[in-house]
Design brief:
Length: 251
């Protein structure tokens, strides 16, 4: 029937970096919609704060940069819920500002380990579990508008977020036979602790200016709406940003 809505049962959703920022906002929106959540992060206390008041959440302390820890995480999911419908690959870091000539070994390695390797390890294990269950699935990768154009002195962050674009497209292709889709989520200036620097942000012309931000709860609702979709609907890209921020024409 035209206009009819298909009822979607509660999903089992894994949220990495669920203890703060975008991860916390998305997790609490999904919990409010009665989805079953696995919250993952390095600090159990912040995960438990995210899950407070909800019985449909499990908190697991894990470091996504450690492939063995990620394998153990998914072994716990396989032994518990026994399935995973959606992975929100959200854990990430914003390194100190650096250009190509000033980037340090440690800063580069840290950014790559969390933003790229961690996302790949989680996506790999999620894909394997989704394929084994055989009912499809969805992997949402938190990228950034930096996956399109850089900010000044953002070499590590920009490069890693371009890598997330490649990861998402590869999952879309490799997942086609199994009804496993992927979404690249590009966010611009959501008002989290990570974006506190945008009150005095360096611009491409060398000046500094305050940039507009927006409530991350709007991101949470968008992500939750994608989670609620049937697995036979793909959303390859999703962009949301503060109106008026210097993205169009940046550079």
């Amino acid at each position: 029937m035209s206009g009819a809505t298909r009822a979607i049962p509660p999903r089992v959703v894994l949220v990495t970096g669920g203890g703060s920022g975008i991860g916390r906002s998305v997790a609490r929106e999904l919990l409010a919609r009665d989805h079953r959540l696995v919250l993952v992060g390095r600090h159990r206390k912040t995960l438990e704060e995210t899950a407070e008041g909800y019985a449909n959440a499990v908190c697991i302390q894990a470091d996504v940069t450690d492939p063995d820890a990620v394998r153990d995480l998914f072994a716990q999911i396989a032994a518990g819920p026994g399935r995973l419908d959606v992975l929100f690959n959200n854990a990430g870091v914003f390194p100190p500002p650096a250009s190509i000539e000033t980037i340090t070994d440690d800063s580069w390695n840290s950014a790559w380990a969390v933003n790229v390797s961690g996302s790949v390890w989680c996506a790999r294990e999620a894909f394997r579990l989704m394929k084994s269950v055989g009912e499809g699935g969805r992997i949402i990768n938190n990228a950034s508008i930096s996956a399109h154009v850089p900010r000044p002195k953002s070499l590590a962050y920009t490069t890693t977020k371009h890598a997330i674009a490649g990861l998402t497209r590869s999952i879309l292709l490799d997942g086609r036979p199994y009804n496993i889709t992927a979404t690249r989520l590009d966010i611009g200036n959501a008002a989290t602790a990570m974006t506190g620097a945008f009150v005095d942000a360096l611009q491409a012309d060398g000046s500094r200016k305050a940039e507009p931000t927006f409530d991350p709860d709007h991101v949470a609702r968008l992500v939750a709406n994608v989670v609620d979709l049937p697995h036979d609907i793909a959303v390859p890209e999703l962009m949301v940003m503060a109106a008026g921020m210097p993205f169009i024409g940046r550079g």
